[in-house]
Every structure is written in structure tokens, then in C-alpha cells.
């Protein structure tokens, strides 16, 4: 499992409402945080708001890519530079800014089925 945690609030960053997207090697989106999933990491609950966290389990061995963007910029093509919206709304607190990207990979537990009798 891949755990993806964005920390911006602790840095005093103007990046609010960031979004995480996970892509396969062909650029297909496999997972993303949404407008209603500004969920802090388990160790940050009640201390951080708007720093997204996502757990992703790959279904197959391969290359995967993580995209970080501002909310509303979720239709960019990860293979095309400049394809995102680039929108920012300073009056609404939606801007770009510094962030820390924390990644952790944990092995998938393989549980063998019980032997047939």
C-alpha cells in the first residue's frame, strides 16, 4: 500500500485545498482525493485541516505516479506539460504554495486460502 500525505499547513503555506491524484504508467487516473475528502493523516486529526491524505493499493506490479495540484485543477493530463488550469483564487484562499510530500510504502499482506480438504 502507498500512503500519500501532504503537509502544507504546518509550513504556513498558502496552499489550501490541495488534491492528490494517482496515475498508472499510461496516465490513467486510478485514485484521487475529492472536494469532500480533505481528511488529515491519522496522526494529524484535529490538528490540521486541508492537508490531504490518501491510501492507495495497486492492483498490479508496475509504475505509478502521484500528482499534486490545487483543488479544481483535476483534469490535467500528467503526460502533457501545462495542461492544468493554473487557476488560483486568492480572495477565496486558494493559492499555490510550499508543501511537504510524505510517501510510505508498506507491503501487501498475502494471506493464503486454507487448503482444500
- Output the strand order for the largest sheet: 4-1-6
Number of helices, counting only DSSP H or I runs of 4 residues or more = 0
Portion in strands: 25-35%
User: Using only CA atoms, what is the Rg?
Assistant: 17 Å
Low-confidence stretches: none
Reading the helices and strands in chain order gives EEEEEE
List the helices and strands and how they pair.
Elements (H helix, E strand, L loop, with lengths): L1 E6 L10 E7 L4 E4 L20 E4 L7 E7 L29 E6 L12
Antiparallel strand pairs: 1-4, 1-6, 2-3, 2-5
Overview of the molecule:
- The protein is mainly β and 117 residues long.
- 0% of the residues lie in helices and 29% in strands.
- The protein has no helices and six strands.
- The strands form two sheets. The chain has a three-stranded antiparallel β-sheet with strand order 4-1-6, with no helix packed on it. A three-stranded antiparallel β-sheet has the order 3-2-5, with no helix packed on it.
- A hairpin with a 4-residue loop joins strand 2 and strand 3.
- It is globular, with a radius of gyration of 17 Å.
- The two termini are 32 Å apart.
Amino acid at each position: 500500500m502507498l500512503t500519500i500525505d501532504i503537509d502544507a499547513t504546518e509550513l504556513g503555506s498558502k496552499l489550501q485545498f490541495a488534491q492528490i491524484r494517482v496515475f498508472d504508467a499510461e496516465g490513467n487516473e486510478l485514485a484521487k482525493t475529492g472536494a469532500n475528502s480533505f481528511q488529515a493523516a491519522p496522526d494529524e486529526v484535529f490538528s490540521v485541516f486541508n492537508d490531504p491524505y490518501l491510501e492507495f493499493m495497486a492492483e498490479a506490479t508496475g509504475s505509478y505516479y502521484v500528482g499534486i495540484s490545487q483543488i479544481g485543477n483535476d483534469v490535467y493530463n500528467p503526460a502533457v506539460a501545462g495542461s492544468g488550469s493554473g487557476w488560483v483564487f486568492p480572495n477565496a484562499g486558494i493559492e499555490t504554495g510550499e508543501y511537504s510530500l510524505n510517501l510510505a510504502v508498506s507491503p501487501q499482506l498475502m494471506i493464503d486460502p486454507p487448503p482444500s480438504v
